[in-house]
Amino acid sequence: MLSFTSKTLILIIDLVTRAFPFALSVSSINTHARKKPGVESLTGFAPFILLFLVVHCTARPLYPLPSRNTHGSRQPLQTFRPFNIAHRGSNGELPEETAPAYMRAIEEGADFIEADILSSKDGVLICFHDVFLDNTTDIAKHKEFADRKRTYEVQGVNTTGFFSVDFTLEELKSLRANQRYSFRDQQFNGKFEIITFEEYISIALDAPRVVGIYPEIKNPVFINQHVKWANGKIFEDKFVETLEKYGYKGSYMSKQWLKQPAFIQSFAPSSLVYISNQTDLPKLFLINDFTILTEDTNQTYWDITSDSYLDYIKQYVLGIGPSKDTIVPIVNNYLQTPTDLVARAHAHNLQVHPYTYRSDNNSLRFNFSQDPYEEYDYWINKIGVDGLFTDFPGTLHKFQEWTSSKSSHDSDNKTASELLHIIANLVSSYKRT
Ligand SMILES: *[C@@H]1O[C@H](CO)[C@@H](O)[C@H](O)[C@H]1NC(C)=O
Ligand SMILES: *[C@@H]1O[C@H](CO)[C@@H](O)[C@H](O)[C@H]1NC(C)=O
Ligand SMILES: *[C@@H]1O[C@H](CO)[C@@H](O)[C@H](O)[C@H]1NC(C)=O
Ligand SMILES: *[C@@H]1O[C@H](CO)[C@@H](O)[C@H](O)[C@H]1NC(C)=O
Ligand SMILES: *[C@@H]1O[C@H](CO)[C@@H](O)[C@H](O)[C@H]1NC(C)=O
Ligand SMILES: *[C@@H]1O[C@H](CO)[C@@H](O)[C@H](O)[C@H]1NC(C)=O
Ligand SMILES: *[C@@H]1O[C@H](CO)[C@@H](O)[C@H](O)[C@H]1NC(C)=O
């Protein structure tokens, strides 16, 4: 009786995914522009609206994403498999930490969108990775800022460049983001602006399914040296206040958390301890490469991965976020014997979310035959991690979907009434657009 072939269904879903999310993104952007005094108009977003059209027409998903919710309420966060954490958005494709990079990550199936939080000179929290603007913006082209170049000590190293802490938000908004790596697609350079922490949160809250946020308290020692807030508030206070303003609260897996999932991350253990009595949101302690000291407490890699330290830090954090090369060391681009870090963290009941997974051929270890799926298979099924920070959330999502017994079972077993429901929703969303 249902004469729809699966091809017809995919075609209809395709048409709707082109029309409907686009309408969604425009209306949500509109609301932010009105809510946020700092964002003057829609015009700054015009390029990414255009991009959105392009992306939707050329890079359509091959299967209905979880975001294509057809049952009224938003599809919940998946909690049955390791978390797909979109590192700086879908930054393998689009300039990192920009609105299009985050929207693309959501479209591609990320569970969490990840951001580095820094501050402008006037104390507005922004999404940006480096403390200086040089490597990922067009600051070099802005002659009006030529005299802003400074040298500051950053984590014990004198660093020269243009620092975000010397620019107001309005000035930062006049810059445009660039792709960090020359071996990646450069066509979106100069098109998208830097976004604030609040704009990033709005992107997650407006997603058509539940998408978590994963903000980092980035370079807190440096930020607190250079930026001062009213009433003696510090960076960490403003960070938690922003999360609370948008309703982020609750411990891991609580009802409130599942509604608006968030992980807080930092390389600075004292920041995590400091906020521990301000929010019960789950926190992850990031662990840098073997040779790097913690920026706040000057501890070595060996100090902070000892059993006694894991015992201490587990009072404050849900897990650790180590560089993946400290879990499986690399020599000449070959994997060596894995360390016991994952086993010891799990023995302390700590989750492990390593960073960073990249599909670029120059990032893949020779053991993986230039195949990112082999890398995910190794880390998920052999090493057994609980979350993965990836520059290519679409690749990780496809790997997880195509190897998940749950999802294939679901898609092969749609009842006729479920199919009718989907079609009814497609028709009504057409009427709306
Ligand atoms: C920024 O670019 C410079 C010059 O290409 C490079 O040496 C440096 O490692 C980059 N820094 C970061 C944080 O990417
Ligand atoms: C950075 O430069 C200043 C001024 O030249 C100097 O006093 C300081 O020792 C330098 N710091 C480092 C870590 O090199
Ligand atoms: C939070 O903890 C700090 C020290 O860890 C303490 O000084 C402060 O009083 C605590 N604040 C609250 C509200 O419990
Ligand atoms: C860490 O080292 C820096 C510079 O070497 C020093 O200024 C700072 O006081 C040290 N911090 C701690 C907690 O020992
Ligand atoms: C990776 O390749 C190297 C070199 O062939 C080999 O020694 C190592 O055991 C391999 N590791 C894994 C996990 O396959
Ligand atoms: C990656 O691919 C590029 C472009 O094809 C090539 O120039 C480069 O040598 C490759 N790098 C590695 C490590 O395979
Ligand atoms: C398909 O779904 C029905 C009803 O939900 C269930 O009873 C049945 O076991 C499922 N079949 C398979 C092969 O999973």
TrEMBL record:
The keyword Signal applies. Transmembrane segments: none annotated. It catalyses: a sn-glycero-3-phosphodiester + H2O = an alcohol + sn-glycerol 3-phosphate + H(+). Its EC number is 3.1.4.46. GO terms for cellular component: vacuole. Keywords: Glycerol metabolism, Glycoprotein, Hydrolase, Signal. SUPFAM superfamilies: PLC-like phosphodiesterases. Residues 82-400 form the GP-PDE domain. It comes from the Eukaryota. The keyword Ubl conjugation does not apply. GO terms for molecular function: glycerophosphodiester phosphodiesterase activity. Gene3D superfamilies: Phosphatidylinositol (PI) phosphodiesterase (3.20.20.190). This is glycerophosphodiester phosphodiesterase. It comes from Senna tora.
